[in-house]
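Changelog-adjacent note: as of this version, every example in the card shows the full chain rather than a window. The one below runs 149 residues end to end.
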Amino acid sequence: MSARDKSCSQDGRLQEMFGAPMAELYARASSPEVSAALTRALELRSFLALAEEQVARVRDRVHEAMSADRDMDELSADQLRFDVQRLDAALDARNGYRDALGNLLRSMPPPGRQAQQARAAQPTVATAVPPSATAPAPQRAGAARARRP
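Full-length structure tokens:
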């Protein structure tokens, strides 16, 4: 299963920021006009989805090992220590990806302002002054006559 097919804790936030469902965002990412922000956000989202899957796997394995209906003779402190180490590593990765994605999304303009900023950034056409208005005045035009002694 691809990371794009896995759910992630930040999917709702991404959909809100970019204004589309995840499937559409991934479709947009494959177009040539994709924004750098969307590309980075989806990359971080994919890493986060995989890290969250690892956290869930270890959590489920520990819950199963600690289940009340399990035989206590099957418990292994060494195995639980190993699971704790894996859980720590997976949680560190998850927290790092969440922080990075959060920082990226905070640095983006609010959803309503993205379109306004794109329109404001378009070049404007400057009007030129007609050549007749900028032509130099004839030498004697409007000049005061010099007094003769």
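Structural remarks: Residues 29 and 39 are 6 Å apart (CA to CA).
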